[in-house]
Amino acid sequence: MKLVEYPDSELMMFDLADLLASELSAALRQNEGASFCVAGGSTPGPVFDILSGVKLDWDRVTIFPSDERWVPETDERSNARMLKRRLLTGKAEAARFIPLYADTPAPEDAVEALSEAIEPNLPISVLLLGMGADMHTASLFPKADHLEQALSPDAPILVPITAPGAGEPRMTLSARVLEDAMNTHILITGEEKRKALMRAQTLEPDEAPVRAVLDAATVHWAP
Ligand SMILES: O=C(O)C(O)[C@@H](O)[C@H](O)[C@H](O)COP(=O)(O)O
């Protein structure tokens, strides 16, 4: 794991947006298209605001969330809603978006169709994850019902997740799909998450799921 500490959050958001844009550009120089997989939640919003104004061949970029809460896009907790408002706007409006949600009663009903849409876009070119103070990343939550399956080396692309602390049921990319990404970044702020990150390094993924992606990741932290 590489840890980059910034003196303040605003500087971090600008530097990280710049870095992600250059990694996407490099991926686009080498390939016809690039995939950009991004966390939901609240922390990365400012990075998305900056990135959406960056000049890039966005029409060759496919964006999808690392995980989704099982709510329609009209719901304020929908990651797709946030991403469409803050990332897929401005210059980045030209990017293609693949949802991890379908209008079915439960995530289990949509695994197959959603996985088919994601598969041609793997491995992920650039991955931006977040982390919770409980050491979850994407929707790989400690004590989740299908965590063992989601962490296994032969896991499917997507795994439905129900977990204490997760709110509604969710859909998450499995750990092996996240681990295979070509460039991995984790964005966190505040002392509580910094402590959780340090602790996660001493634990196994079943207790600290973020551990599954830490080795290959650059973690960006600001107070
Ligand atoms: O949809 C989600 O909830 C996520 O993708 C999740 O893994 C998130 O990145 C962390 O929970 C951190 O969330 P915050 O940035 O809101 O603290």
From TrEMBL:
* Entry similarity comment: Belongs to the glucosamine/galactosamine-6-phosphate isomerase family. 6-phosphogluconolactonase subfamily.
EC number(s) from the headed UniProt entry: 3.1.1.31
What does the record give as its pathway? Carbohydrate degradation; pentose phosphate pathway; D-ribulose 5-phosphate from D-glucose 6-phosphate (oxidative stage): step 2/3
Q: Which NCBIfam families does the UniProt entry name for this protein? A: pgl
Q: What is this protein called?
A: 6-phosphogluconolactonase
Boundaries of every Glucosamine/galactosamine-6-phosphate isomerase domain copy: 8-221
- Xref: SUPFAM superfamilies: NagB/RpiA/CoA transferase-like
Q: Which UniProt keywords apply?
A: Hydrolase
Q: What's its catalytic activity? A: 6-phospho-D-glucono-1,5-lactone + H2O = 6-phospho-D-gluconate + H(+)
Q: Which CDD domains match?
A: 6PGL (cd01400)
Supply one GO molecular-function term: 6-phosphogluconolactonase activity
Superkingdom, taxonomy of origin: Bacteria
From what organism does this protein derive?
Albidovulum marisflavi
Describe the function of this protein: Hydrolysis of 6-phosphogluconolactone to 6-phosphogluconate.
